[in-house]
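Attaching the record inline, Q. Sequence:
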Amino acid sequence: MPRPRKPTRLKVLEGTDRPDRAHPEPDIPEASDLSAPDWLNGPDAADLWTKLAGLLGKVRVLSEGDLDALGHLCNLHGRCVRLWRAGESPTAAELTQLRMLFGEFGLTPATRSKAGQLGKAHDENPFNKLNTA
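Structure, as predicted:
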């Protein structure tokens, strides 16, 4: 099975974009309205939404289709925080799901390293120095 292609947008951010390796990306509309949905289950969920929507929207990796998944991530995070504040612990399944959802958005060290450094474009391509022609 072939390895999935890295999106061109990530290549541009990393400074590794090359015209000979360009491939068309699906037309997925970026999220235009990043306001928190009304179904978030508390202030902790709403705070995380504000933080993550701003971060993910800034690096342009959040599409309209991702907003519900981000809401579920925020709700689950809010539930875990409420449990910890009450002196209880979330279940292992809840913690696993939370970790998985954070990973889906590239918000853990392991998944962030797989996607490259989002939002940090290289100022200069070091290989340009080799071009003497």
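The chain has five helices and no strands. Confidence is low (pLDDT under 50) at residues 116-122.

More tomorrow.
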